[in-house]
Amino acid sequence: MFGLGWLEVGVIAIVALLIFGPKKIPELGNALGKTLRGFKEELNHTDDEATSEKEQE
């Protein structure tokens, strides 16, 4: 995962837990998931528009 070992991932998780707290982590994950989902949908939408423009030519 991005060239990180398990030790580095664990340290990042502990630091995130200390900074944000256990109640805020699920909210942040939910917001990140929605953002990534919207970004992915927008990329697919752009690909669909490019394909339909090529078909019209």
In short, what is this structure?
With 57 residues, this protein is mostly helical.
Characterization of the model:
It is a single chain. The chain is mainly alpha-helical and 57 residues long. The protein has a domain of 36 residues. It is 84% helix and 0% strand. It is elongated. The chain starts with 5 loop residues before the first helix and ends with a helix. The model has no long low-confidence stretch (mean pLDDT 84).
What share of residues is helical?
over 70%
**Shape estimate:** elongated
* Strand composition percent: under 5%
What is the number of helices?
2
Structural class designation: mainly alpha
How do the SSEs run, as a string of H and E? HH
Distance separating the two termini: 42 Å
How many whole angstroms does the radius of gyration measure? 18 Å
Number of strands: 0
Mean pLDDT: 84
Uncertain runs are none
Largest sheet: none
Q: Descriptors for this entry?
A:
84% helix, elongated, 57 residues, 2 helices, single chain, mainly alpha, 0% strand
How do the helices and strands line up, and which of them pair or pack?
Layout: H1 6-20, H2 24-56
